[in-house]
Sequence to fold (163 residues):
Amino acid sequence: MALLRRGQSVTVRYQDAAFDRVLQTLRTEPRASCATVFALFGSPRAQMERAAHELAASLGKPLHRVRAGGSRFIGETEKNLTRQIQRASSTGAVLLFDEADALFGKRTGVADSHDRYAGAETSTLEDEVVRQRGTVIALFQSEVEATQRRPDWRQVAVRFPPR
Fold:
């Protein structure tokens, strides 16, 4: 389906006809040439988390929650994220990022000496998502962040509440 090419983004409502077509395409397609990111945004949060579990189950894959677990040492958070993503990818799991605004958000401005490393986590995370080429579910609070177009993966921004 042309709807899901690399660099494309589509915004749908959870459980509407367009969402169902996207999901059916993912079920019938062979392994993707790039990552597919479901960027869930809106409210309520519990409903988005339940939907993440339903999405993974409907694709017949386990769900693995990736925890950022910030470290006080520069570089440790990035290494931790990379290990978790690679471990989950090797099992074919769908990755779940529940604080996606913080992890995928833009980093602007440098207020002090620690800020110059603030974008490292985002860059590492996006590189790993592109490299693993699987399915990712990211829970966002911000519609702006959820619908931001990223050229290296195909993205389905899913608006909540459903119907």
In short: The chain has six helices and six strands. The chain has a mean pLDDT of 78. The beta strands are 9-13, 36-41, 63-65, 94-97, 135-140, 154-159. Residues 21 and 68 are 32 Å apart (CA to CA).
